[in-house]
Design goal:
By secondary structure, the protein is α+β, with helices and mostly antiparallel strands. Strand 5 and strand 6 form a beta hairpin. The two termini are 29 Å apart.
Length: 381
């Protein structure tokens, strides 16, 4: 298992400290600054931009997944086998993980299945009435966005990408969600505090913790904040006694949350000031989570992390932050947003759901992650 990389996570670091600070060109209320053209009132000459070929995109490196201790053969110990079957885990499998740790993984993730079950008593922990939005619709849409990033990857053929994406679709969980809507109603929230966990689609036992906070009070100067933190997590950190425990953030002496030791603040917005992390820190997550290096571009990983963190899935006024934080990243050659395959896969999933569940009652309990694994389970039969 690749070692964790210790990172500098000072959210107040200057651009020279590996962060990139940009302005979104708007005032505190999100309105564009007015620009006054020189020579106003005179007939302006048309200016054509100079043609530019732009920098050549880098090539992706095809993942091999053949490290020491990794196997393409399914693990046969009791709880490793249960995990592979229940969550459709794909090769490679880490043969060095003891079954006792797979047991903790199994019990923890099974508990999250129960919490992420619509209409269940345990789901109340992730349902915010003040937010006024459907938790499970958000989870479904975010899971689809996670899958889409893999549909648009390069190097692997469509069958391999589809298998990985189908398992990922059912690997995202809410561990915490609270928010409230803006005054006057509507579906644009004033505040969102979200914590999610995404498990690797492979038998590596790894996962990501994602913490997304957003606050924007319309027409109130100085009340516009957002940050997004992502942390690595290995199988020995699984905790069946506290399955919702988030290791991406810790509390300081004033009980305020800050990034943990192996976490990265992907972006930080404070009114018109926006800071974004670097490509190196973004791509470090690929090695830990996917067990590959150089397969996914910095932009692909940035989009992947944002999707897993449910960023921009609440109709929140935060698009300019995400755009500015990600504008310096580029795709690799042959990568895309994966929208075409995402659409066809969504249609297949809906058909499978109809066949599997039929017309469900309004208050019938449904485990959303297990439901979203239907395509992956079809592959494994």
């Amino acid at each position: 298992m690749p070692p964790k990389r210790k990172v500098n996570r000072d959210s107040d670091a200057s651009p020279s400290d590996d962060s990139v600070s940009v302005s979104d060109g708007s005032d505190f209320e999100g309105r564009p600054h007015k620009k006054v053209a020189r020579g106003a009132g005179k007939k302006a000459a048309a200016v054509k931009p100079k043609a530019s070929a732009g920098p050549r995109l880098k090539k992706s490196i095809k993942p091999e997944w053949n490290r020491d201790g990794w196997s393409s053969e399914k693990l046969e110990t009791e709880f490793a086998s249960k995990c592979i079957e229940r969550w459709c885990l794909l090769p490679p499998y880490n043969t060095r993980i003891p079954d006792a740790q797979w047991k903790e993984y199994y019990l923890e993730r099974k508990a999250l299945d129960e919490i992420n079950t619509e209409h269940s008593d345990k789901s109340k922990k992730i349902v915010s009435e003040e937010l006024g939005q459907d938790t499970f619709s958000i989870l479904r849409d975010a899971s689809s966005s996670v899958a889409a990033t893999i549909y648009g990857a390069s190097q692997l053929d469509e069958a391999d990408k589809t298998r990985i994406a189908r398992t990922l679709r059912g690997s995202l969980y809410f561990t915490e969600l609270w928010g409230n809507d803006e005054e006057g109603g509507g579906d644009n929230p004033r505040t969102v505090n979200s914590k999610t966990r995404l498990y690797s689609p492979f038998g590596l036992g790894t996962s990501l913790e994602l913490v997304y906070d957003f606050h924007w009070r319309q027409f109130r100067a100085g009340e516009r904040f957002s940050d997004f933190v992502v942390g690595q997590r290995d199988i020995e950190e699984c905790d069946s006694k506290d399955p919702r425990k988030c290791t991406a953030v810790v509390k300081d002496s004033r009980s305020r949350e800050k990034p943990g030791e192996f976490s990265v603040k992907v972006f930080d917005m404070n009114n018109s000031k926006i800071k974004g992390t670097t490509a190196q820190r973004i791509t470090d997550f690929e090695e830990q989570f996917f067990g590959s290096s150089g397969w996914l571009s910095p932009l692909k990983m940035f989009n992947f992390l944002c999707a897993a963190g449910t960023v921009l899935h609440y109709n929140e006024e935060n698009r300019s932050t995400v755009k500015q934080a990600g504008t310096k990243f580029k795709f690799f050659q042959g990568e895309s947003e994966g929208k075409e395959l995402q659409k066809s896969e969504a249609e297949l999933l809906l058909q499978l759901e109809k066949e599997e569940f039929g017309a469900l009652g309004k208050d019938e309990e449904v485990c959303m992650p297990q439901r979203l694994l239907l395509l992956a389970k079809k592959d494994s039969t």
